[in-house]
Specification:
Order of helices and strands: HHH
Shape: elongated
Number of strands: 0
Structural class: mainly alpha
Radius of gyration: 18 Å
Low-confidence stretches: none
Number of helices: 3
Mean pLDDT: 88
Oligomer: single chain
Length: 75
């Protein structure tokens, strides 16, 4: 098996589930308050972009494998 940490796989799966569910829930949930489908679609797209930006931030702030090895070595 490859050397992919479990935390990376978990973050990817969680983000995938959020990318599917959050826009759907936003679209259909906002139909209760707003009857305009264009606005509902825009809110769903906004929620998908928020999830995507959050994943990118998590990916860029995650420590690399080399940094983790160096930290363990220093301790």
């Amino acid at each position: 098996m490859s050397d992919i940490p479990r935390s990376v796989v978990f973050k990817l799966l969680a983000t995938t589930v959020l990318m599917i569910l959050l826009p759907l829930l936003t679209f259909f949930g906002s139909q209760v308050y707003v009857k305009n489908s264009i606005v509902n679609g825009g809110l769903a797209a906004l929620s998908a972009n928020i999830v995507l930006i959050g994943y990118c931030v998590m990916a860029f702030t995650e420590k690399s494998e080399e940094e983790l090895k160096k930290k363990k070595k220093d301790e």
